[in-house]
Amino acid sequence: MIARSKQIKTIDEYISMFPDNIQNILEGLRQTIRESAPEAEEAISYQMPTFKLNGNLVYFAAFNNHIGFFPTSSGKEAFKKELSRYKGGRGTIQFPIDEPIPLDLVRKIVKYRVKENLSKKGSKARSLAQPGRRTASRGKHNQRGRSIPGETETP
Questions:
Q1: Backbone angles phi, psi at 139, to 5 degrees
Q2: In 3D, which of 33, 29, 11 has the Cα closest to residue 67?
Q3: Which residues contact 141 (CB under 8 A, 6 or more apart)?
Q4: CB count, 10 Å around CB of 59?
Q5: Exposed (0-12), middle (13-18) or buried (19+): which is 9, by Cβ within 10 Å?
Q6: CA distances in angstroms from 64 to 5, 21, 32, 154, listed in the order given
Q7: pLDDT (tens digit, 9 = 90+) per residue, 4-28?
Q8: Does the pTM of the predicted model rise above 0.85?
Q9: What is the C-alpha separation between 118 and 121, in angstroms, rounded?
């Protein structure tokens, strides 16, 4: 990835820093994401192009030998078989810079992430709307914030 001396504010700024051949790859990836998630907002997060829809949807970035695509670990896991030929880490995929990016696969992954993020929004809204839901408790809680049955704190 190109070293940046200034804070990048837009995806256009980010893409413009690269040679024409890399710009074409990044624009193609950007367009595919836009078409797959038209409601998503473009942003820069962690100095990378990011699409947000009820939270972070996907990121992408150019590196020396690959284009990094970051659909989160759930997005990668859901397409593990199709992505098996690509390098990457947890939640990341490395598309070699000298090969065409599988845009149809990217499209499927983005649509999966859209459904995933929108379902999180719906389930959170439903749980908050439940009548009689207690918002404060004096009991002890586990790491996830759930009450531990039979455990109460002393005042």
A1: -80, 170
A2: 29
A3: 147, 148
A4: 23
A5: exposed
A6: 18, 13, 22, 58
A7: 557 899 999 999 999 999 999 999 9
A8: no
A9: 5
Tokens of 126: 């439903």
Residues 32, 36: Cα–Cα separation, whole Å:
6
- Cα–Cα distance between 120 and 104 in angstroms, integer? 25
**Tokens representing residue 8 in the block:** 């990048």
Report the C-alpha gap between 91 and 112 in whole angstroms: 14
Please list the ranges in the chain whose pLDDT falls under 70. 1-5, 121-155
* Partners of 67 in the β-ladder: 62, 95
Rg, C-alpha atoms of the chain: 20
pLDDT at 148: 55
Q: Which of 10, 11, 2, 9 is nearest to 30 (CA)?
A: 11
What's the CATH number for 11-131?
3.90.1150.200
Q: Where are the beta strands (DSSP E) in the chain?
A: 41-45, 48-52, 56-62, 66-70, 93-96, 139-141, 147-152
Distance CA 79, CA 77 (A): 5
> Tokens representing 143?
């790491």
